[in-house]
UniProtKB/TrEMBL annotation:
Species this protein is from: Cyprinus carpio (Common carp)
Pathway the protein takes part in: Purine metabolism; purine nucleoside salvage
CDD domains referenced in this protein's UniProt entry, alphabetically: PNP-EcPNPII_like
Functional note: Catalyzes the phosphorolytic breakdown of the N-glycosidic bond in the beta-(deoxy)ribonucleoside molecules, with the formation of the corresponding free purine bases and pentose-1-phosphate. Preferentially acts on 6-oxopurine nucleosides including inosine and guanosine.
Protein name: Purine nucleoside phosphorylase
Entry's Gene Ontology BP terms: purine ribonucleoside salvage
Keyword Kinase: no
GO cellular component: cytoplasm
Length: 247
């Protein structure tokens, strides 16, 4: 397989990755014969970037002709049935920064990308969710494959116990600091979206608990499930309709 990779620092106006574990490269290649572009590292609000900068890659992908975006993230499990290592197909989201007016589409609307008031009730493509469930079953992943609601916060501090309890009551199954802004911009410009959370740690919900959320555990769980996540995503891609480019 031939790949061509660009360091983010060599791409004019591209943000830089500042998070440990994010390589900071844009990689072009083929996955099982399908052309794709892959971000090795994304951007977060807590890095200090304006929300429009965080999501700029989505519009670049649109201009490159990408039709389907596949997003993955690490997240803390709020749903008490979830275990560390579970993979959650995201079926919906809670956009907490958005409640406070921090939405990547705020400001003048870019009409060449999409409408002023885009619908978000269909943000996560239902056919792709079903495809992921089918592929998960085939691969023998059903025991650790879930479907749920992802909630984004600004970070970088992890949540307090009271915050975790509140988010769970509001209907969130997992919490993280990314993805939702990218989804909003990708949907605004009409790309299909599929997203997965790897439950890297359990959100602490109990004052008697000795557990503490930490980035090392997040990275470690990511490494442990990397191979299965790769198989799941690459098999999903092979089943996408022909001529469907993706990021
Ligand atoms: O959402 P991704 O980028 O996968 O990473 C998650 O893990 C980091 C915290 O450990 C935060 O960046 C959080 O958003």
């Amino acid at each position: 397989m031939r790949i061509v990779a660009f360091n983010y620092r060599d791409i004019p106006n591209f943000p830089q990755s500042t998070v440990h574990g994010h390589a900071g490269r844009l990689v072009f290649g083929t996955l099982k014969g399908r052309p794709c572009v892959c971000m090795q590292g994304r951007f977060h609000l807590y890095e200090g970037y304006p929300i429009q900068k965080i999501t700029m890659p989505m519009r670049i992908f649109k201009l490159l002709g990408v039709e389907t975006v596949i997003l993955t993230n690490a997240a803390g499990g709020l749903n008490q049935d979830y275990k560390v290592g579970d993979i959650m197909i995201i079926k919906d989201h809670l956009n907490m920064p958005g409640f406070a007016g921090n939405n990547p589409l705020a400001g003048p609307n870019e009409e060449r990308f999409g409408v002023r008031f885009p619908c978000m009730s269909d943000a996560y493509d239902r056919e792709l969710q079903q495809l992921a469930l089918d592929v998960g079953l085939e691969l023998g992943f059903s025991d650790f494959l879930r479907e749920g609601v992802y909630c984004v916060l600004g970070g970088p501090s992890f949540e307090t116990i009271a915050e975790c309890r509140m988010l769970h009551k509001l209907g969130a199954d997992a919490v993280g600091m990314s993805t939702v802004h990218e989804v909003i911009v990708a949907r605004h410009c009409g790309m299909r979206v599929f997203a997965l959370s790897l439950i890297t740690n359990k959100a602490v919900m109990d004052y008697d608990s000795e557990e503490k959320a930490n980035h090392e555990e997040v990275l470690q769980t990511g490494k442990q499930r990397a191979e299965q996540l790769e198989r799941l995503v690459s098999t999903i891609i092979t089943r996408l309709e022909h001529n469907n480019n993706f990021a």
